[in-house]
Structure formats: structure tokens, C-alpha cells
Design brief:
Chain A: InterPro entries: Beta-ketoacyl_synthase (IPR000794), Ketoacyl_synth_AS (IPR018201), Ketoacyl_synth_C (IPR014031), Ketoacyl_synth_N (IPR014030), PKS_Beta-ketoAc_synthase_dom (IPR020841), Thiolase-like (IPR016039). The complex is a heterotrimer. By secondary structure, chain A is of the alpha/beta class. Chain A folds into 2 domains: about 5-240, Peroxisomal Thiolase, Chain A, domain 1; about 250-395, Peroxisomal Thiolase, Chain A, domain 1, CATH 3.40.47.10. Helix content of chain A is about 35%, strand content about 20%. Chain A has helices spanning about 20-30, 55-65, 75-90, 110-120, 135-150, 165-175, 195-200, 235-240, 270-280, 300-315, 325, 335-350, and strands spanning about 5-15, 35, 50, 100-105, 155, 180-190, 220-225, 225-235, 245-255, 290, 320, 350, 375, 380-385, 390-395. In chain A, helix 10 (about 300-315) links the parallel strand 10 and strand 11. The longest helix of chain A has 17 residues, at about 75-90. Chain B is of the alpha/beta class. Chain B contains 12 helices and 14 strands. The longest helix of chain B is centred in the first third of the chain and has 17 residues, at about 55-70. Chain C has one domain: Non-ribosomal Peptide Synthetase Peptidyl Carrier Protein, Chain A, CATH 1.10.1200.10. Helices cover about 50% and strands about 0% of the residues of chain C. Chain C has helices spanning about 1-15, 40-55, 65-70, 70-80. The radius of gyration of chain C is 12 Å and the shape is globular. Classes of the chains: A alpha/beta, B alpha/beta, C mainly alpha. At the A-B interface, helix 4, helix 5, strand 5, helix 6 and helix 7 of A face helix 4, helix 5, helix 6, strand 5 and helix 7 of B.
């Protein structure tokens, strides 16, 4: 009999709110966070829209209480804010060494937001050099662990846009295998010129508000965010008598093995990931009440994902929506913020709307939930796919 | 059913060339601050249409992976799990420079696509048509050990029967100038082996090391991976407890360890952790490997190859002896690594 | 026109890093994608930048590339009609 894994805390920052409560309020009132880029200079400012957190780095430093010379990049700062909230909700103290604790974070840009500012000036300006080491992806995770005062199993996953789903998956498995009693899992990614220009070269950025699963979708809006969940073993939860927000019912990862960036036409990897998640959860497709889709609003993703949904659910595709029109695509953090949204859907009995949807896609008859829907939600399936064919599915259930 | 974890194949591309059974007696000690890998010919392995875009990190990864697969004779993989500290640095740097130098104009996608940390794992899967589980870890000096931990868990849980696991890191221009600027990497003028080192910083070595792991052994198994453990921070005074706790969980006495493999780099700032570790295994053979591989976040993968070699052959090549210990049958080998007092790891291998 | 075609072949080989292929290996009407030269969607994006950088032509929709990049002939034809530099 495998050990159950409960979620006892959640924390997040995104373009639609600096806490879980603020995010919920935006989701429930269809308030999207998509704007022009304000926090850094870019020549693409008038051509792209982003889900940007409207706090400058200085404002973030103050909020966290960092002192000069700290070396924490925006990615790390967003992560610290979100992780603190999650840990606070779960009421974690790191004083008892017998409770084996871990932190599995994820990021794709790491400290790139700082590197792209100072790459050439580092050699002339010793004042900046404390940031040099902050570039490496794992450093933001170290900084979050240090901020929390956490010592233990700490690592970082980077599988592009499915990263945080994989962090949650690894965390759940570390608890199930008995290696850890509790683990903080999630991801963080700041907006950067690097990713903005990168996605621009792929010609998959929309010049207007993204429209997931719409016939006339033109691409994605990039975003930035961080979110963390606290996962704890059944045994620890029972011992500490903690309220549980939801449990991690299933998970699966598969590789599309089709193309370095694009998804296959029939959504093979996505289909396999969902199948694996069903197998782990011992659920059948018809038990899923809501799908939080990856739904980036690129022509390729939504077609491929739609086809995978049809393969996995047949004619019974449940209510689904992509929340990326609210937040933008937050890359490594996406699966973490969407895990929080999935759990909120269960807690609040709400399916959050797929904003900006107008015209169904011609390839199939899949219509996303366009308005807020109040209904009982017991099981939510959340998809996240990344470059390199990386496909991940998580299933959360009512506890 | 609970599986175990056996090393069935090894592949590597290093500053000494590629992995072979006479690797150690052909190797020469690294004295340069940046040790570039000797690149094998890739043409036989990678289709021209794929190779033309690949940076050396991807090519090294594919080569080492295939070498391990060939040796293990495994075709069906249930997972491809990689670790990298710095990721696809060459492509990241190339794309970043293009942004900065051309003021965000005339940028092309290839280097951006390949700057993603999971590129090597993805390209291996793409080339093999492998739709299985595919993860990439990027956490400094425990990047490889994280990948190993994941592999071990999957094999133990019966979720996988065979897994490809490895570590890759590459050297690129400006990033390394910066690393030298802040003393992480020794400066180009310094020319010291690990044993001679009197300065701070490391001799950095790029490369890739891969393993095929299987849940059941064969006559050809190198060794069994008994357990792995990672820890983000550890005070020097906590080291003994950390090691003893790990061994206790695995029901192995410290006295049962026949040899240890340490990740010392010659960095005067932090090698004292290895000295302290060594004192706990005073009369045992202490082996090292970064004098041949160089240091990188995933050099410890090569450390595991070294330990596996020793267990399989039951011989310790004198070239890898840091400190001589008493002669005994080699049953358990314990690996310890850390970098700058952070990201500590222990890996326990057993003769199979 | 012939000059432009030769120039294009050279640039394509360079930009796409087509090792082992020379200008002589590419015929004007060879298909660049699929069975011909075997280029793919990432190469198409590289070629879009080549049009912008080399000839001052901006494509906003990658789908436009399909017809333009069919062969050296179609590319040269499109460039000569639309170039701004």
C-alpha cells in the first residue's frame, strides 16, 4: 500500500496577485494580468504583451528584507516570496531534524535576468561581481532554502515549461518511497530579455491577448511567477493533525520524442503522460471533473494538446480551460501556479475561465470553459509540456 | 516487487578522451585551469542533419550515452535522466551575446532552443525515439546525484527496469572568464595538479559521463548502487553524523567500507571537507579522480565510474590513489563530494 | 538573378551549418525542405531572419515561409521582388 501525499500549504506570486488569496480573487472576477513590459527595456515593448509582476526588483528586495550585496536575482526573490507563504500556511518549523524535509524547486531562466544586464560590465565593475554566481539555475533554490532555514534534500529540476510539474512529481515520489516526510515543491521564473527574445525568434509570441484553444490564436504571452506547495506524508499529517488542502493523486511524465520544440500532431507525449497519471492515481478518465490545460495559445500546442485530450478522454472530455490568458505562460513556474489553481478549483468549487475565447478550432469540437463555472470539483488534471518533448500531467484530488 | 540498481554500462567523454578499460593508465594529470574535452568523431553516431546544430555538450552527451548503452546491450529504456550544473552554456552564451550585440535584432532560434537545460536529455530521447520518462536536474554539485537518486527510486519502486543516467557540463568563453575573475576557476597562469595546489579555485574539466542502470544484475554488472543522499548545507562538525546516518540507514558499518572516493579539487578554500572525511576512513584507500577529469558540477559522475571500475576489476590503479590504505577485498566503496561547503553527496556502491 | 541564387546557396549553407554540402550540390529547383535538402521548421525560422538581415524583408507569419522557401528559385524570385536592401 503506497503512502498518500497531502498538500498542506500553498504560496504564489503572479501577474494576477502576490498571494494565493489575491490570485483567487483575480480568477473569480476574470481580472487578467497581461500588460506591456514595464520592468526592463526592450525593443519589443510595443509588439508583445506579458504577464508581469508589477514590483520592481528594489520593491521586491524591500518586501523580502534583503540587504545590499545579497546576490538574489528576481527569479530567487519571486521564489522566496511564494515559498514563504506556502511554508507559513503549512505552519512548518524546521526545528525538528527527525522530520526529513526537502525542497525541490525548478526554473528555466535561473539568474539570466541579472546576467543579461551585467554580462559585459562584470569585468569592469567589482561592485556587481557578487551576482556572477547567481546565474546558475540551482542558486535560486539554494537561496530559497537558506531563506527558509531548510537543511536537507534540496535540488532543482529544469525541463523547460514542464519543470514545476516534474518538481511536484519528484516530491511526491520522495515521500512515497519513504525518503522524505515532507517536501516543498514548485518553481520560479522571472521575465527576462533572454526568454522574451527567444520565444520571439520562434515566432510564437502573440502581439495581442493570448486566446487559448481559439481558431484565431496567434501565440502566447510570456509571464513570470513563482509558486510552491508543501507536500507531507499521510503519517506526518496524522501525527500533526493538519488541515489538508488536497492530495496528489497521480502524475506522469513522458517524452514526445518528436521535435526539439514542437509537439507531435497527435499529441503522443501528452497522451502518454496522462495515461501514466491515470495509472498512478488508479482513476479512470471519466472521474476527472476539470482539466487545467497547458493551453499556451500557440497554434501548435493547442492543436496537439486538443488531440491528446481526445485520445485520452474520447468523447467525454471534461470541462477544461487554460488559465494562461490570466497570467501569461510562466515557463518553469507554470505547472506550479496551475497546481495551485487546480487545488483552488477543488476547494472553492470553481472552474476558472479560459479568457478571450471566441471561435472554436476547426480541427475538433473542443470548447473550453469561457466563463467562471461553479460546480463540485473532486479531481483536477493539469497538463504541462516543455521543449524537448517533455510532457507532464498531475492529478489532484479532494482529500 | 522491489528492484535494485546495478551499473551495466559506462560511457564518458573527458579531457583524457573517451571511456575505456585502460582509461587510468593512459591518463595524464590535468594542470591547466580549463581542461577541454578531447572530442571523438561523432559522424558515425549522429545524423548530419542533427549534428549540424549541436553544441559540444549535446554531442558529448550523445556519445557517452551511446557508449553506455552499447556496453549494457540495452535498447528499451524506461527513463533518460540527466544532470548539468551550467546547462548548455555554449548556446546560452551565444544567444545572449546576440541579444546584447545586436540590440535584440536579427536573432535566430537555434541557440535559444538549445540553451534549455534539458536539451541533452531531449536530444538523446529524440535520437533513440525514446518516449519514456525524461528529467533534467540542475543543482550545482548534486546535479548528477539528484539524477541518480531519481533513477534509484524508480528502479527500487519497480517503475523502471532500465534507466540511462548521466551528467554533462561544457566550458564556454565569457562565462569562464567571469568564473576566473571571481576565483572559482584557477587563472590560466596557474599550472598546478591537485596534489601540488597551493591556490584557491579549481582546474575545471568539461565532459559527459553516462551509465545504464538496471534493476537486476548480470555477470557483466560493474557494481550495485546501494544508495545516494544529498544535502544542501552541512557544517564541518556535522559531517560525521551525516555519514554515519547514511551508512546506518543502509545497515553498513563504517568498518565495512573498503575504499572511499573523494571529490577533492585542489581548492585550498574548501578541500578541508575532504580532509575531514578522509580522517573517518584513516586506514582505507582514498581514491580521487578530478586530477584526470577536472572539476565540474557533474565531475562526480566520473567519480562513480571510477568507483564502479575499481569494484568490477577488484584492482585499484595506482594513478587514482590519493592516500594508500590497507589491502582488502573491495566490497563497499563510498563516494563523497561537495563544492564550496555546499551540495554534499554520498553514494554507496557495492560489489555485485 | 544567377548571382543572387549563388549568394543564397552560400548563405544557406553558412547559416544552417550544412557541413559536407557545397554550393554546387544545390540545384535551383531542388526542394529545400522534406526530401530535398531536408530542412525543417527551425531552419525555416533561420531563413526568415536571413531575409530580414540580408534583404530587409520582414515576414510576420511563419506560414508565409512555406511557399517562399520551396526552392532557391522561389526564394530568389521573392527576394528580388520584395527586397529593401
Amino acid at each position: 500500500m503506497s503512502v498518500g501525499v497531502g498538500v498542506t500549504g500553498m504560496g504564489m506570486v503572479s501577474a494576477i496577485g502576490l498571494s494565493v488569496a489575491e490570485n483567487l480573487s483575480s480568477l473569480a472576477t476574470s481580472r487578467c494580468g497581461i500588460t506591456r513590459v514595464d520592468n526592463f527595456e526592450t525593443r519589443h515593448r510595443d509588439n508583445v504583451l506579458v504577464g508581469e509582476i508589477k514590483l520592481s526588483n528594489t520593491a521586491l528586495e524591500e518586501r523580502i528584507g534583503l540587504i545590499k550585496g545579497h546576490g538574489v536575482t528576481r527569479t530567487g526573490m519571486l521564489g522566496i516570496l511564494a515559498a514563504r507563504e506556502a511554508v507559513q500556511q503549512a505552519g512548518l518549523l524546521f526545528t525538528d531534524p527527525s522530520v526529513r524535509t526537502g525542497l525541490i524547486s525548478s526554473t528555466s531562466v535561473g539568474g539570466m535576468d541579472v546576467t543579461e544586464k551585467y554580462f559585459y560590465s562584470y569585468t569592469q565593475d567589482p561592485e556587481l561581481q557578487h551576482y556572477i554566481l547567481s546565474h546558475d539555475a540551482g542558486v535560486s533554490t539554494q537561496q530559497i532554502a537558506d531563506d527558509l532555514g531548510l537543511k536537507g534534500t534540496v535540488t532543482t529540476i529544469s525541463t523547460a515549461c514542464s519543470s514545476a510539474a516534474n518538481a511536484i512529481m519528484l516530491g511526491a515520489r520522495l515521500i512515497k518511497s519513504g525518503r522524505l516526510d515532507r517536501v516543498i515543491v514548485g518553481g520560479t521564473d522571472a521575465l527576462s530579455k533572454f526568454t522574451l527574445n527567444g520565444f520571439n525568434t520562434l515566432m510564437i509570441l502573440s502581439d495581442t491577448y493570448c486566446k487559448p484553444f481559439d481558431q484565431n490564436r496567434k501565440g502566447l504571452n510570456l509571464g513570470e511567477a513563482a509558486a510552491y506547495l508543501v507536500l507531507e506524508s499521510d503519517a506526518l499529517i496524522a501525527k500533526e493533525q493538519k488541515p489538508v488542502l488536497a492530495y496528489v493523486a497521480g502524475y506522469g511524465n513522458a517524452n514526445d520524442a518528436f521535435h526539439q520544440t514542437a509537439s507531435s500532431e497527435n499529441g503522443e507525449g501528452a497522451f502518454l503522460a496522462m495515461q501514466k497519471a491515470f495509472a498512478v492515481s488508479e482513476l479512470v478518465a471519466s472521474q476527472i471533473d476539470y482539466i487545467n490545460a497547458h493551453g499556451t495559445a500557440t497554434p501548435n500546442n493547442d492543436l496537439s494538446e486538443g488531440r491528446a485530450l481526445l485520445r485520452a478522454f474520447g468523447n467525454g472530455v471534461p470541462t477544461f480551460s487554460s488559465t494562461k490568458a490570466f497570467t501569461g505562460h510562466t515557463l518553469a513556474a507554470a505547472a506550479a501556479i496551475e497546481a495551485v489553481y487546480s487545488i483552488l478549483a477543488i476547494q472553492e468549487g470553481m472552474v476558472f475561465p479560459n479568457l478571450n475565447f471566441e471561435t472554436p478550432m476547426e480541427e475538433f469540437e473542443l470548447i473550453p470553459q469561457a466563463d467562471l463555472l461553479r460546480r463540485d470539483v473532486n479531481y483536477v488534471l493539469s497538463n504541462s509540456f516543455g521543449f524537448g518533448g517533455n510532457c507532464s500531467t498531475l492529478i489532484f484530488g479532494r482529500y | 516487487m522491489k528492484g535494485k540498481c546495478f551499473i551495466q554500462g559506462i560511457g564518458a567523454v573527458t579531457a583524457q578522451g573517451v571511456w575505456s578499460l585502460d582509461f587510468f593508465n593512459q591518463a595524464t594529470e590535468i594542470t591547466q585551469a580549463k581542461a577541454y574535452a578531447q572530442q571523438p568523431s561523432y559522424k558515425e553516431l549522429i545524423a548530419p542533419n542533427m549534428i549540424r546544430r549541436m553544441s559540444k555538450g549535446i554531442k558529448m552527451g550523445i556519445f557517452a550515452a551511446q557508449q553506455a548503452l552499447d556496453e549494457a546491450g540495452v535498447e528499451d529504456l524506461d527513463g533518460v535522466i540527466t544532470g548539468t550544473g551550467l546547462g548548455c552554456l555554449e548556446d546560452s552564451e551565444k544567444f545572449l551575446k546576440n541579444i546584447l550585440d545586436n540590440d535584440e535584432e536579427f536573432l535566430t532560434p537555434t541557440s535559444f532552443i538549445q540553451s534549455t537545460h534539458n536539451t541533452v536529455g531531449a536530444q538523446i530521447a529524440l535520437r533513440l525515439g525514446c518516449k519514456a520518462y525524461n528529467f533534467t536536474y540542475v543543482n550545482g554539485a548534486v546535479s548528477f546525484e539528484s539524477a541518480l537518486l531519481d533513477s534509484l527510486q524508480q528502479l527500487e519502486a519497480g517503475d523502471a527496469q532500465s534507466v540511462l543516467v548521466g551528467g554533462i557540463d561544457e566550458i564556454s568563453g565569457h562565462t569562464f572568464t567571469l568564473k576566473q575573475l571571481i576565483g572559482e576557476v584557477k587563472s590560466d597562469e596557474v599550472c598546478e595538479t591537485i596534489r601540488e595546489s597551493e591556490t584557491r579555485g579549481v582546474n575545471y574539466g568539461e565532459g559527459a559521463t553516462f551509465f545504464v542502470l538496471r534493476s537486476s544484475p548480470t555477470m557483466e554488472s560493474y557494481a550495485e548502487v546501494v544508495d545516494v543522499c544529498i544535502q544542501n548545507r552541512l557544517e564541518l562538525g556535522e559531517l560525521k553524523e551525516f555519514i554515519d546516518g547514511f551508512l546506518q540507514r543502509n545497515k553498513v558499518e563504517r568498518a565495512a567500507i573498503s575504499a572511499v572516493v573523494i571529490g577533492n579539487t585542489g581548492d585550498m578554500g574548501y578541500d578541508y571537507y575532504f580532509d575531514r572525511f578522509g580522517r573517518l576512513f584513516e586506514d582505507r584507500s582514498q581514491l580521487y579522480y578530478k586530477h584526470f577529469y577536472g572539476h565540474s558540477d557533474v565531475a562526480s559522475a566520473f567519480g562513480m565510474a571510477t568507483a564502479a571500475y575499481v569494484l568490477k576489476t577488484q584492482e585499484i590503479p595506482e594513478e587514482i590513489v590519493w592516500k594508500t590504505g590497507k589491502q582488502m577485498p573491495l566490497n563497499y566503496v563510498l563516494l563523497y563530494n561537495q563544492y564550496k561547503g555546499r551540495d554534499h553527496s554520498l553514494v554507496l556502491l557495492k560489489r555485485s | 538573378m544567377e548571382e543572387l541564387k549563388a549568394e543564397l546557396k552560400g548563405k544557406i549553407i553558412e547559416v544552417l551549418n550544412l557541413e559536407d554540402i557545397t554550393v554546387e550540390d544545390i540545384n535551383d529547383d531542388d526542394s529545400l525542405f522534406g526530401d530535398g535538402l531536408g530542412l525543417d521548421s527551425i531552419d525555416a525560422l533561420e531563413l526568415i531572419v536571413l531575409l530580414d538581415k540580408g534583404y530587409g524583408i520582414k515576414l510576420s507569419d511563419p506560414k508565409q515561409g512555406k511557399a517562399i522557401f520551396e526552392s532557391i528559385n522561389t526564394m530568389a524570385d521573392f527576394i528580388s521582388k520584395n527586397r529593401t536592401k
